[in-house]
Amino acid sequence: MQTDQSTALRFVGDIEPWQGILLAGVVCVLTWLLYRKEVSRGILPPLTWLLPLLRSLAILVLLFTLTGPVLHHRQKIGQLGRLLLFVDGSKSMGVDDAQMMPDTRKLLSAQENGWLPDGTVDTTLSYAADSLATASVDLTNRLRTSKLTLDQFLEARGVFTEKLDKIYEQASKADVPAPSRELREGVLLKEVWQGIPGVAVNNLTTNPKFKEAPNISEYISEFAFPKNTGEDYGLRITGFLIPPFTGEYTFKMRSDDEAVFYLTPNSTNSRAKKTVLKTNLGEQTSQPIQLNAETPSFVELLYKEGNGDDYVDLSWILPNGDTEAPIPANRLAAPPTSGSALTGNFQAQAKRLHEAIRTRLHTKNLPNPDNPNASELLRNIIIGVTAQIQEYENLLREAFVTQSESLAHSGNTLISAALEKFDKHSRWERAHNLLTRHNGLLTQLRDTHDIEVFMLKGSTAERIWSPPQDQDAPIEIPVEPAPEELTSDLSDGIRKTLSTEINPETNQNPDPNNPPQQTAALLFSDGRHNDGSSPLHTAKLLGASNIAIHTIGMGGTTPPPDLAILEVENPDSVFIDDHIQGTVHLKDNIGNGRAFEIKIQHEGRIVWEKKLFTHNLPRRRIPFDFPVKNIVDELVKQGNQEVDTLSLPISMKISIDPLEEEARKDNNESKLIFRAITRTHRMLLLEGRPRWE
Description:
Number of helices: 15
Helix content: 25-40%
Oligomer: single chain
């Protein structure tokens, strides 16, 4: 076992050492001058300068204590844990999240970056939800045995119940303000009633439970329900569809078992809803329905599951031919829910769920250990309480969001300043600040870990910081240049850096007194992996080598506002008297209604243009069609007239006028390249039949 000892002088006071030295120096000089003037009368040297000096030194020592000098003794036994920090070096890390991240996440990030004092954002409910999710997984894992015994069940139940009580104790003290009654964009309201048999929607609507509060009430971010989530339940999804533009929309619905879809076109009136689709064990397509752009339409979907497989989802075909399956979050809105933390008393809801979970787990109807079906009966108890645990977790998270949103809109100047600072910093700048700021991650971890920081560039990882020999040296990582890789590879660079640890042949250490260094990896990224091998595969390789990898998400929950030319489809060649026809594929992540123009230019002259409006679509197809004869004639005149030209290569520029809010303006141009065939048609007669030569 290796032992290493070191001693160093550190400063842990309220002011920096240089500030303390400067302040003490100024005060000491003034003290020496004033006191010397007083003692110079009637006192002989050397006391005339010695007494002022002693007083000045006393004040120097007193002021210098404000810097908090301490003698730090450090003893390292064995090896430090190895921690490798990887920062995504792709260009998307250079954008900000001003328009892409909800205020809740902004406040948490601002607090972690030191722009808000610790404790400003109360994270009690968020941590309680995380703790409940972890406890639920632990409960399930403890009971994942081939034959579950009563003793195993009782032990797992006791551990879970203890955690559950602690979570409720924390939640019951939380102050959750009344939520806003405004519509929530990007979600629909999902309500689930459990314990209702049958496979027809009529079995749900005629059941007395349907008139009571649902067992689960939460928001979903797409028009779909997860597959195989339970048996004998009914589902209702309500909200509003927001069409991106005016035209005819065709709906498609899949389900198992029966589902009915209702719609009130161009109106929020739920009483005027009409049946659009009804499915049972399959897919159905509606007739085209005229909808107006940006006009909310009330929607309701009722679904009934008996047993076996269960799923339901709704998609639509837009007027331009694009299909969105299922209908995504940017087309949805929802009213405030009527049965969860979003309305009503949060403490009452938390108490109800806490007692319901405890009651179902501590049932008196436990099977006899001699019962051959005891294992299956015990598992059913756990399965029966899973949905309520999930609802409790959702309740805690929704309440935390309500707390944070209330804080963000409180008008507090400190909160407003922190949010403004967040909006001005890019993802890379925030990651840099988290690492290097006073009492940041590197400062907290470098004494207890062997740390290195890398930036992922393409398929490699470039080291940008390693601990200096002087442990007290300031942490410096250049903030410039900003990340500039066009692609994101979140796998290969990490795997190459840890190749020694992953390789089992080099990861063996036969000496039991000198165990191998424990290694972990931490990744800062916006998660936009689009190049290289699979990050999931790399994570599995690391896990198999006992290397933990953790992620810190730096991106927003919605794409950055951006217009981009993704692809240009066009023929390789076109005859001189014909038109060049093709399609420009655009990425349109700008809110509806912003005007922009797309142009095709040849040598600075516009040959085709079209005025458009943004529709917030992930992919748009814009067809173009224009003649090429005049362009070819000009090129022929500019060339050598004595040369017989059969074809000419032509390159044109396709561009979009950038909008002010775009996160990137370097992806608004592309090339249109083709060959113009200039030779005349010729005919060859063979056996009296015309053929092209």
